Amino acid sequence: SRTVRRDADGLVTVGGLDVKTLAEEFGTPAYFLDEDDFRARCRAWREAFGTGADVYYAGKAFLSRAVVRWLTEEGLNLDVCSGGELATALDAGMPAERIALHGNNKSTEEITRAVEAGVGRIVLDSFQEIVRVAHIAQRLGKQQRVQIRVTVGVEAHTHEFIATAHEDQKFGIALAGGQAAEAVRRALTLDSLELTGIHSHIGSQIFDMAGFEVSARRVVQLLTEVRDEHGVELPEIDLGGGLGIAYTSDDDPREPHEIAKALGEIVTKECEAAGLRVPRLSVEPGRAIVGPTAFTLYEVGTVKELEGLRTYVSVDGGMSDNIRTALYDAEYTVALVSRTSDAEPMLSRVVGKHCESGDIIVRDAFLPSDVAPGDLLAVPATGAYCRSMASNYNHALRPPVVAVAGGAGRVIVRRETEEDLLRLDVG
Ligand code: LLP
């Protein structure tokens, strides 16, 4: 986060507030989100893409009413992928025309709510859904703007991409075998749909632009086929999200302006070669906007030194507030932030308080050997897919999200209570 500082005593401040004060006021574990940093990242994406393109923040990374208001104010659009995300967006006043609805199995209720609200875009993910959305729109007497999500045969994973003949996963409609062309054909025959473009999302935590280039090229190829077959030039392309962030110093993320330049150039070049009008581009970054803006603050409870192995440092949260290490082998760093220490670094594993040995937050970390109960540890870059994937495993109470700005912390998602848990238990 851009406004995190460490003073001479090793005490970390964020947005002008020190972590001890934050821990006293808001408790631990808690996520602290730097609002100024979030807004600055939104602006960087908007400015990089300019007025000729749209930036849809992917709400799955982290969504709350405050986030929706910041996005609205900073001129971003919003990608939602469930009724819950849609409800949050509408409740917090995001204009419906700036919302896109995603998902590989949207329910009839979700589609109906989206069409009724007047969302700007529904991204169609299957042949059944083309018909389903068309019927719902027709029943409501509306014409719904839609895109078709295609799978371009590029599988992107962290640092590299692997081009595959066919993608063995659940999303989208394959370009291969003429499936996507057939989907376009069907969508164009339905009066209650206005097909505006093609969507492609290739993966997540990607650093290499090559996968996006292949994706853009193949999407433009489809637009060319559509023009040749139907005499229609679809006016939009969405290249999805997936831009990586730095979790450790090994990660080297691209800046928004580099991404915008690379994508803009490739789309323009391919369209010019095909004699197509350059479509309006949109992208859907989630992690790249919110990921770096937050850290999780934990308090150490126990320290267990295993001779010749490592030291297990247990904190007051765990896989219920950050599942990413257990689920994806994700790498995080950790720092002692409540004081300075000259003690020797020791090989540590930061673990949670859940009832399984896979409950790991940071697999390998060097922490000062005098780390002790009561110390505060911060795990940076937890803004994306941590609170949004948090669970109540072991009836853990999900931590709050505190927005820090203007020298004050403000709870934007409050800590769960035992009452919250018991309220749902009506047996
Ligand atoms: N657009 C679509 C259609 C997506 O499916 C996703 C992410 C995004 C945009 C945003 O991707 P981002 O820019 O945030 O990488 N839970 C995983 C990540 C799953 C991403 C799913 N889709 C994680 O914690 O790494």
TrEMBL record:
Cofactors (names): pyridoxal 5'-phosphate
GO molecular function term, any single one: pyridoxal phosphate binding
Active site, per annotation: 355
Binding residue positions for pyridoxal 5'-phosphate: 242, 284-287, 385
Modified residues (N6-(pyridoxal phosphate)lysine): 60
Domain Orn/DAP/Arg decarboxylase 2 N-terminal: 36-290
Matching Pfam families: Orn_Arg_deC_N (PF02784), Orn_DAP_Arg_deC (PF00278)
EC number from the UniProt entry: 4.1.1.20
Reaction catalyzed: meso-2,6-diaminopimelate + H(+) = L-lysine + CO2
SUPFAM superfamilies in alphabetical order: Alanine racemase C-terminal domain-like (SSF50621), PLP-binding barrel (SSF51419)
Keywords, alphabetical: Amino-acid biosynthesis, Decarboxylase, Lyase, Lysine biosynthesis, Pyridoxal phosphate
Domain Orn/DAP/Arg decarboxylase 2 C-terminal: 296-383
CDD domains: PLPDE_III_DapDC
Functional pathway: Amino-acid biosynthesis; L-lysine biosynthesis via DAP pathway; L-lysine from DL-2,6-diaminopimelate: step 1/1
Keyword Lyase: yes
First-level EC class: lyase
Domain of life of the organism encoding this protein: Bacteria
Role noted for this protein: Specifically catalyzes the decarboxylation of meso-diaminopimelate (meso-DAP) to L-lysine.
Quaternary assembly: Homodimer.
Record family assignment: Belongs to the Orn/Lys/Arg decarboxylase class-II family. LysA subfamily.
Entry protein name: Diaminopimelate decarboxylase
Species: Streptomyces benahoarensis
Organism taxonomic ancestry: Bacteria, Bacillati, Actinomycetota, Actinomycetes, Kitasatosporales
